[in-house]
Amino acid sequence: MTQDPRVEQFISSFQALRREVEKVIVGHRDIIDHVLIGMFAGGHVLLEGVPGLGKTLLIKTLAEGLELSFARVQFTPDLMPADIIGTNIIVEDADGRKHFQFQSGPIFAHILLADEINRATPKTQSALLEGMQEGAVTVGGVSRPLPPPFFVLATQNPIEMEGTYPLPEAQLDRFLFKLRVRYPAIEELNAIIDRTTQVRAVTVDRVMTGPNVLASRELVREVPIATHTRDFASAIVMATHPQWAQAPDVTRRFVRYGASPRGAQALVLGAKVKALAEGRYNVSVDDIRHLAAPALRHRVILNFEGEAEGIDVDTLIEQIVDTAATTTTQGKEQFVR
Amino acid sequence: MPHPDTLDRLVREIATQVRWRRAEHYGLRGLFWGAVAAVVPLLFRLALGPWALALAIALLTAGVVTGALFGLLKRVSPADAARLADREFGLDERLSTALEWAERDDRTQLVDALVVDAVARVEAVQLRQVVRRILPRETRLLPVPVVLAAILAWAPPLPLPTASLPDFSAGAQKEEARERGDGTMLEDRARPLAKDKQQRPVFEERDWAQKGATGAAATAGDLSAVFKDTSLANQRPDFNSFLKKGDERLKMLEQTDRLPDLQSDFTSSQYKMVFRKSKELKSGLRDTVSPQKLKELLEEMERLGRKSGGGWGQDVSEGMEALEGGSTDRAMEAMQKALDKMRAQDEAQRGGKGLRGGRESDRRSGREGGRGEGSPEDQDFGEGEGMMPGKGKSGAPKGEASQRLRANPYDVGVEGESRRGKKDGFDTNLTGRAGKMSSRLSYMGIIGQYKNAMEDAISREQIPRDFHGQIRDYFQALDER
After folding, report:
1. Could you tell me the pTM of the whole model?
2. pLDDT value for B377
3. Looking at residue A114, which CATH number applies to its domain?
4. Residue range A273-292: average pLDDT?
5. Residue B257 per-residue DSSP state
6. Is residue A216, in this structure, part of any structural domain at all?
7. Checking DSSP bridges between strand A111-115 and strand A70-74, what pairing results, if any?
8. Could you tell me if A179 and A236 lie in one domain?
């Protein structure tokens, strides 16, 4: 039972949005939750999975549940940055005078679906960098702000697939979460078949507006976090750095680069959203632990040995979290030594 | 917003639990170290008397009390206690966050809601023991000092160790008694004095042991048992006299250098020994000859010359003078001359008891004829040096070259015939030109001569006794062939 009406509003909106998405998407509850958490935390989300798992459908459905503008860009190798951002074109006015006019690209939408983002060249991929971080794009020397709330949802195929360009680290770092879309279970698959092969019209209701989303983002930042919980998040991020003095052995052995401070921000912000969505007014250690993998898996770069050994980043992060828990929060509770 | 009492009360409760666990933990540690310390006075119970037990108990108690007090008084952080309560009662950090944020200036409305929520959840908590008991490492070893202390407390007091090694001899005890007798205590003066001052008191115990050895079995301290297998066993095992007179066996062991050198004295001639030493003198990595060793060799040669009446004394004297003058080369030349003379004498002596028809006689005859022919073994001793054409170190003129057989291999042959009889044999003779040479010998005749020489050598005890049987077997095998 909550006391703050804003929190009640947030929880109801969160749950309503989840419900709308689940009308279309079967299963993938954790993916839906993480996408919503990313959106309310004010970040961008990258979904990775082989084709046909419903990544694009999930984002389209989410956009339909929000009263926000939506644009979709199918990334291909011949896609140019101007195709995303927009460009100045020469137009002729009624007086016959010609001048440049900015033709905005699809990035000027509230929700941008960058489908198969790793099929475009790194040059085009980088066109999103400024918009994702600054909320504005610069064209012809003129900075143009993007409409808030701006939310990029990108999908990518695993980099092992043909015709893909791995996203650069700087680009990856700008995504709050990287979510791995797995294959559905057999029950989920049966439900998918039933839903998509029968005559059945599914309508998604709009349950949130742009201002609601922005207000929720503000509310999220008010959620208090205890010092030791914050320290736990910091310790996790620091433990991904092989150069750190207290880094665990797995990090020293398999990691080339650790997570940036954006990783810690993503952890804490995501944990705040999760706490609020669960009706709590504070962040718990479990929130941090739960979001460690989505927030850090694309920020931890394995070294050659890690790649050669086929180390799973999620498993690695799990071990790092356990180590950090031992050395920080639980370690301090060993009263008798 | 101040801390609600509910939250504070829970934190205090957890802190109390922590203190008691700490008291247990440190009390056990104190018990261990107190027990270790308690062992010490119990070890010295003889000196401390009844105070030892009291001191041990006091140390044990002090260890436990000190440890427990330390644990109780050690500060417990409220934040740590709150965090432990959060985890153990499933509060999801509500308690610790509420306590931390309630007094902050930048708290928001959500914090107020959080405190209310935390209080509601804490009131629903069923209090229980949440602090785990952590036994110290010393607990595993705790039985050792405790049991040891208990044993020491029940057992009779241990004797105090002395600064010096114990002297169990009766003489020492009497000496101590005498020293005590020099004091003023009357009862000590009443003790009987030593019966016989002339008797060495050190061996009084052995006297007693000796008596025991004659009749009953040897008892502990029966040192004479060591000498049971010797003729000294029946005598008084007086160690001083033993050392004074000496045990024959020990004498033998001490004089190993005087044991007969069978190899040098009985199987080698004086010349060969000196020649070997001269070779050793000149061998080695350095070109220079040690003057000290050269001097020793010359002195030995001089001694041998005096002993055997050899005529190399003059040469040795010259060598000594040259050596004193610092001329090693001249000393070496003089030694070489003396060595040649020694060799000549040795060969002359061996000629008298040599075997007829042997290589020595052949060589001697060849040498007399201006020729020399030495086997490789003989050359090792320098006997052919200076005589064989193309060999030797002496600058003296060589004799004529040996007459060589022509290259026709058919000039040399061997013929033989089997001999029947009690023992089968085979007589061989060289044929061709070689047959006319003096090396032609009859096998059986030679074997017989060698056998006679062998028996002669054995009878003159020139052969060690242990080798007699082996040598006879060898000649027996030759005879049967």
Report:
1. 0.58
2. 41
3. 3.40.50.300
4. 92
5. G
6. no
7. parallel
8. no
Check A329 against B83: CB less than 8 A apart: yes
Which pair of tokens denotes residue A161?
């697939």
Our CA dihedral for A292, A297, A298, A299, rounded to 10 degrees, sits at 70
Per mean pLDDT, which range of A231-240, B49-58, B362-371, B421-430 is the poorest? B362-371
A172 and A303 in a single domain? The answer is no
Q: A–B: how many Cβ contacts below 8 A? A: 85
Integer distance in angstroms from the first to the last C-alpha of chain A? 40
Q: Is A335 on the interface with B (CB under 8 A)?
A: yes
Residues A44 and A130 sit within 8 Å (Cβ to Cβ): no
**Looking at A177, A206, A235, which one is the last position of a domain?**
A206
| Span B297-301, average pLDDT | 86
Q: Tell if the CB–CB gap between B109 and A333 is shorter than 8 Å.
A: no
**How does pLDDT run across B156-213, given as a tens digit for each residue?**
887 776 665 555 555 555 555 555 544 444 444 444 444 444 444 444 444 444 444 4
**Token representation of residue A172:** 């990856």
- Lookup result for tokens 């030495």: B374
Asked if the Cβ–Cβ distance from A332 to B83 is below 8 Å, we say yes
In this structure, is residue A115 part of a structural domain? yes
Residues of the domain holding A18: 5-77+109-134+144-206
- Distance, in Å, from the CA atom of B370 to the CA atom of B421, rounded to the nearest integer, reads 43
**Same domain for A187 and A158:** yes
Cα angle A225-A229-A234, degrees, rounded to a multiple of 5: 110
- CATH number for the domain spanning A321: value is 1.10.8.80
Number of helices (H), then strands (E), belonging to chain B: the values are: 21, 2
pLDDT tens-digit map of A310-328: 888 999 999 999 888 877 7
Q: Residue B381 pLDDT > 60, yes or no?
A: no
User: What is the mean pLDDT of the segment spanning A13-40?
Assistant: 89
pLDDT band at A51, cuts 50/70/90?
Answer: confident
User: Is there a contact between B29 and B74 (Cβ–Cβ < 8 Å)?
Assistant: no
Q: What is the C-alpha separation between B372 and B347, in angstroms, rounded? A: 14
> Is ipTM strictly over 0.85?
no
Query: Would A15 be classed as within a structural domain?
Result: yes
In degrees to the nearest 10, what's the CA dihedral of A156, A159, A162, A165?
80
Distance separating the N- and C-terminal Cα atoms of chain B: 126
Out of A178, A206, A234, a domain closes at: A206
Whether residue A237 is found in the same domain as residue A182? no
Chain B partners within 8 Å of A225 (Cβ): 97
A335 closest CB neighbour out of B21, B98, B116: B21
Task: Compute the average pLDDT of residues A74-85.
Answer: 90
A4 to chain B, closest Cα gap in Å? 7
Quick one: pLDDT at residue B42?
A: 87
Q: Which chain B residues have any C-beta within 8 angstroms of a chain A C-beta?
A: 18, 21-22, 25, 71, 76, 79-80, 83-84, 87, 92-94, 96-98, 100-101, 107-114, 116-117, 131, 134
Nearest CB to B83; choose among A281, A333, A336 = A333
Best probe of the B interface among A281, A287, A290, by most B CBs < 10 A, is A281
In B, minimum Cα distance to A283 occurs at B93
| Cα separation, B404 vs A123, whole angstroms | 104
Asked if A180 contacts A317 with a C-beta cutoff of 8 angstroms, the reply is no
Predicted local distance difference test score (pLDDT) of residue B480: 62
Residue A330 contacts B, CB cutoff 8 Å: yes
Pairwise CB contact (< 8 Å): B94 & A280? yes
